[in-house]
Amino acid sequence: MRIRSWNGWLSLLSVFLLLSLWWLSTALNWVNPLFVPSPQKVWGAFVDICREGYKGSPLASHIGESLKRLALAFFLAIVTAIPLGLASGYSPKVRALIDPLIEFYRPLPPLAYYTLLVLWLGIGDASKIALLFLAAFAPLYIAVVAGVARIPRDRILAARSLGASRGKAFLYVIFPSCLPDIFTGIRTAMGMTYTTLVAAEMVAAVSGMGWMVLDASKFLRSDVIFVGILLMGLIAVLLDLLVRWLAKTQVPWNGKE
Amino acid sequence: MRAIGLTESYDASPSTEDGERLVSIEEVSLVYGRGKKEKEVLRNVSLELREREFVCVLGASGCGKTSLLRLIAGYEQPSSGRVRVLGREKAEPRPEVGVVFQHANLFPWLSIRRNAEFGLRMQGVGRAERRERAEEAVRRVGLGDAEDKLPFELSGGMKQRAAIARTLAASPRIILMDEPFGALDAITRENLQQQLRRLWLASRQAIFFITHDVDEALLLATRVVVLGGSPGSVAVDAPNPLYSEEESTAELRKRQEYGKLREQLVESLKHA
Ligand SMILES: Nc1ncnc2c1ncn2[C@@H]1O[C@H](COP(=O)(O)OP(=O)(O)OP(=O)(O)O)[C@@H](O)[C@H]1O
Ligand SMILES: [Mg+2]
Q1: With contacts defined as CB-CB under 8 Å, which chain B residues touch A183?
Q2: Which residues does the UniProt record annotate as the domain ABC transmembrane type-1 (chain A) (predicted)?
Q3: Given CB atoms, is B77 within the 8 Å cutoff of chain A?
Q4: CA angle in degrees (0–180, nearest 5) for B220-B226-B231
Q5: How many structural domains are present in chain A?
Q6: Which of A173, A178, B9, B135 could be bridged to A147 by S-S, CB 3.0 to 4.6 A?
């Protein structure tokens, strides 16, 4: 307990040191303010954007647009990757069918196939969501397959000895056994989609946090870039906290078997 | 097959010889793996389990006790010979044959009560009834106060009791137990032995019980089987002369012949 609170203070300290360094370096003119705006200026830009929005849309709608794309892509990934992962883990045949596709596209840089997606799906939201979906799908699928592989065989046999058919064992034993891995997969997938977010909003977007940052860079508005990056970082931390909280409340037995 | 001493002092013959035959294992051998990794674990094993019997299986580590249990449970198929369970030619996992594992093997996401409900739920028993029956089973093993806890919140002994409750709640006709008390301390083990004895005296489900513990076998069994050798085979298969419904385990321990029988059994284990 004691050590933990100490560690909390240490984290705060490192954030504080970084902020001080930032402030010092701008206040003492160590750096060109064109590239590194002062904290005050960034705060000013933040207040401005909050009040008047950026390029015609309020800040909330930029955040909302990004989150909507993320959420939709994520939803699609969850409803496809989890059942497919479970099926692959359960049946080597299904796995043989699906694995090569995933092994092939997973290491590709997202921007490489994004061009194709735009070609096929147009420059609207569909191609963006497809890109984010692909980013989320692979890590989630892989985590679920690994989860199934880790289930003790005797657990499934115990269920069968209690009268569970193969189908019921799948639903009532295999799926819940994988929940911890599903949550781990969701966290990794979340990171992957988030990092592709900017790429997704690079092409023909007029809204979103990623777009805001890219657009600001064209006009050398480093203060807006800073606002965008800090916001994205903050939202990422909050999303991760949310998933971790969900994992903790939904799979309290994780790691304690 | 030798019977070493056990049959000589055969007096209080348990009246199970005429019970219906629930399991019959005929000249079974079991080989794991293929090619270079091939390993014969059981050879020419014949054994039966009748209604109302409590058979304790003893044997050195690695002689194939668990493998034998897994054959009856239908988790493995014999390489030769036959395993017939409840009239069926091929053994497969089924709710009439309950299994209690060496490591409780509970479903970690379900509370103790919901673990106990699992079998009934799979068999389509209605919510109210299965809840009642599960609660009854959990109470019977003395876990009434912990029924809403998750398995990881329980001690090893409590987990093992929960596993027994889960198997009991499904009302199997045969219960297979693989060293269920092996990992517990002496006092907890003795408690659970007594509990199990009481439960069995009340229900008389046939029990196939693997143990390392000679005392455990003498106190609980109606019949004692010793497996031995490599590949394993049946060295002793004899009624337990000590078996008594009236006397408590403490009284049984004090009986004159207890020490001698125990020694004989240990001897036969050594030579098995
Ligand atoms: N799935 C398996 N594949 C290959 N070999 C196995 C397998 N299961 C068990 N064995 C081997 O079979 C032999 C008998 O194992 P088994 O678990 O039946 O012994 P046991 O009598 O239950 O031992 P213990 O008292 O230690 O539990 C051992 O040598 C073991 O290594
Ligand atoms: Mg064993």
Answers
A1: none
A2: 63-243
A3: no
A4: 145
A5: 1
A6: A178
B272 touches A: beta carbon within 8 Å: no
Is-contact A5 A12, C-beta < 8 A? no
Chain B positions touching A152 (Cβ under 8 A) are 105
CATH for A123: 1.10.3720.10
| pLDDT digits 0-9 by tens, A169-228 | 999 999 999 999 999 999 999 988 888 887 788 776 778 888 888 888 888 888 999 999
Q: What percentage of residues in chain B have a pLDDT greater than 70?
A: 93
Dist. CA B179 → ligand 2 center (Å)? 7
For residues B205 and B54, what is the distance between their CA atoms, to the nearest angstrom?
Answer: 8
Q: Which of B87, B60, B85, B63 is nearest to B74 (CA)?
A: B85
Of A160, A173, A256, the CB nearest to B152: A256
Mutation pick for ligand 1 pocket among B28, B29, B67, B225 (CB with most ligand atoms within 8 Å): B67
Model confidence pLDDT, tens digit, residues A7-33: 889 989 999 999 999 999 988 888 888
Query: What confidence score (pLDDT) does residue B17 get?
Result: 58
Note the ipTM here. Answer: 0.88
In angstroms, the first-to-last Cα distance of chain A is 23
The pTM (predicted TM-score) of the whole model is 0.84
pLDDT band at A4 (very low <50, low <70, confident <90, very high): low
One DSSP character per residue, B99-112 reads EE-SS----TTS-H
Does a structural domain hold residue B1? no
Nearest to B51 by CA among B171, B172, B174, B224: B174
- DSSP tag of B200: H
